[in-house]
Design brief:
Elements lengths: L20 H12 L28 H13 L10 H7 L33 E6 L6 H16 L7 E2 L6 E6 L19 E3 L13 E4 L4 E2 L7 E2 H13 L24 H11 L12 E4 L7 E6 L2 E6 L4 E2 L5 E2 H4 L13 E4 L7 E6 L2 E6 L4 E2 L5 E2 H4 L13 E4 L7 E6 L2 E6 L4 E2 L5 E2 H4 L13 E4 L7 E6 L2 E6 L4 E2 L5 E2 H4 L2
Parallel strand pairs: 1-2, 1-3, 3-5, 6-7
Antiparallel strand pairs: 4-5, 8-9, 9-10, 10-11, 10-12, 13-14, 14-15, 15-16, 15-17, 18-19, 19-20, 20-21, 20-22, 23-24, 24-25, 25-26, 25-27
Helix pairs in contact: 4-5
Bound molecules: zinc ion (ZN) (2 copies).
The site of one zinc ion has 5 residues, from loops.
């Protein structure tokens, strides 16, 4: 199958009854991408039998009808002729997945959903053959960004696995085992293809292949073919989307440089398949805390009178949030249902309890019964022993220690912190101390005014997350050091 198309045909205007060699190239292109069928041609789209049936080498009525369909779908002037504008689009590098004209979009959204979707809503992806252009770690970076982009807006949770992948990702050249029609074509033209979710396509269902003849890069502006852009598009196919006719959409078939952000059309498309996961782009959290007992594996983000919940297993925010603190956290005193200062869980004799601080008072919440213990709020100064005076009138953030620091709690205020011992139920001597001096490796902005702190769980066990403004930093309890590469934005990485 020839897919290096029409490269010789410059300014021209071919129509009905033309019979130059370019007509054959035009028909090869239209049949390759699902707009036309030729005698004996392999099926490329489900609607194969309904496609116009052309005579090779002749610009006949069927060829004209296919050109009209192509022009209509791609919003070109509908002339039925191979004119310079149509040719210019056909010559652009593109995705190898056929366009499926049978499913013409209509209405305000123009995405097209494929006929299959994942029934396993946590499909795993794995790179089984990389490229010399980039390290495997870098390719995984692009795949992570691509799948996370889709999963942040819809209720699907694709994630990286190290075996038993649903979505097998590989780089290949030429005919690479999925049929002559799907053979890659050297530099340019077809860049990649993604297969729809099962049962479509048998063993290949859900798989993603990149043409390794391209020069794949990740820098901006791109110096080669931008892997992040193509991965985002092909990931859309592997999750069940077809090509969109919206020229700015990620699911538009043609490559035009870096395009790493989903458009409204793409988002409407993936939500039509899996349902909505709302983005809640909140910053400046009042408090955060990891769940325990029946709520283990969840992270809670409090702001004002509302909160969000994060799922550490999916590494995605749970759908259906924000919710009201007053409605969901039972028996809290009224002034603890908005603008809390800090939240952290107890250990030792206090395990299973959540402490919520606000101003000079605190309440104790029981994770197992999911309600506030009776008798609260109480005075911080009276119940938390040996705290420095200015820590008894309000703190910024708090977290319970993990790993080598289990059995301790850390309370932050301004540029200082204290360490509390759960076993003796009092502040360790020698505190407060300087955050900057005692928490090595934290980004400069995180040595004072920390707004919230929370422990990782599941795959993120042993990590401490500190939130400030729109950013967060990560601290490793075992190494007793801030992880490199931070701060990062909360948006995209969490919400
Ligand atoms: Zn595509
Ligand atoms: Zn392939």
């Amino acid at each position: 199958m020839r897919t290096k198309l029409l490269l010789s045909a410059d300014a021209l205007d071919l129509g009905l009854r033309a019979a130059t060699p370019v007509v054959g190239e035009l028909q090869a292109y239209l049949s390759r991408f699902g707009w036309l069928r030729l005698p004996g041609q392999e099926r490329v789209v489900a609607a194969h039998e309904t496609l116009p049936n052309a005579q090779p080498g002749h610009f006949d009525d069927a060829t004209e009808a296919a050109v009209v369909d192509f022009q209509r779908f791609y919003r070109l002037p509908v002339t039925g002729r191979l004119n310079p504008e149509t040719l210019a689009l056909m010559r652009r590098p593109r995705c190898g997945v056929p366009d499926k004209p049978a499913a013409f979009p209509g209405g305000p959204a123009n995405f097209v959903a494929a006929s299959t979707k994942w029934s396993n809503l946590r499909p795993g992806y794995m790179l089984s053959a990389g490229t010399a252009d980039l390290s495997d770690a870098s390719v995984y970076g692009a795949l992570f960004n691509a799948y996370r982009s889709w999963c942040l807006v819809a209720q699907i949770a694709a994630h990286r696995v190290s075996s038993g992948a649903d979505i097998d990702v590989r780089f290949a050249t030429g005919d690479h085992g999925d049929g002559a029609t799907n053979a890659f074509d050297g530099v340019g033209s077809i860049l990649a293809h993604g297969f729809y979710p099962p049962p479509n396509g048998g063993d290949l269902a859900g798989d993603l292949h990149f043409d390794d003849a391209e020069t794949w890069t990740r820098d901006l502006p791109p110096t080669g073919t931008d892997l992040d852009t193509v991965a985002l598009h092909e990931a859309g196919h592997t999750l069940g989307l077809d090509h969109s006719d919206v020229a700015s959409a990620v699911m538009y078939a043609f490559y035009g440089g870096a395009r790493r952000t989903l458009t409204d059309d793409d988002i409407a498309g993936i939500r039509s398949v899996y349902g909505t996961r709302e983005r809640n782009l909140v910053t400046n959290f009042d408090a955060t805390v990891e769940g325990e007992g029946p709520f283990a594996g969840k992270g809670y983000f409090f702001y004002g009178s509302r909160y969000l919940r994060y799922d550490y297993s999916d590494d995605l925010p749970d759908p259906g949030y924000p919710k009201s603190i007053a409605a969901e956290w039972h028996d809290l005193p009224a002034n603890f249902t908005t603008g809390i200062d800090a939240a952290f869980s107890g250990q030792n004799a206090f395990a299973g309890k959540l402490y919520i601080f606000k101003g000079d008072r605190y309440v104790r919440y029981d994770w197992a019964t999911d309600k506030t213990d009776p008798g609260y709020p109480k005075s911080i100064a009276a119940e938390w022993h040996d705290l420095p005076a200015d820590f008894t009138t309000g703190i910024d953030a708090a977290v319970t220690g993990k790993g080598p620091f289990a059995g301790k709690a850390y309370l932050f205020k301004g540029s200082q912190y204290i360490r509390y011992d759960w076993a003796t139920d009092k502040t360790d001597p020698g505190y407060p101390k300087s955050i900057a001096a005692m928490w090595p490796g934290l980004p400069a902005g995180f040595t004072s005014g920390i707004q919230a702190a929370m422990n990782g769980q599941k795959g993120f066990e042993g990590k401490l997350y500190l939130f400030k403004g729109a950013d967060y930093a990560r601290y490793d309890w075992a190494a007793d050091h801030g992880d490199p590469g931070y701060p990062l934005p909360i948006a995209f990485n969490w919400l």
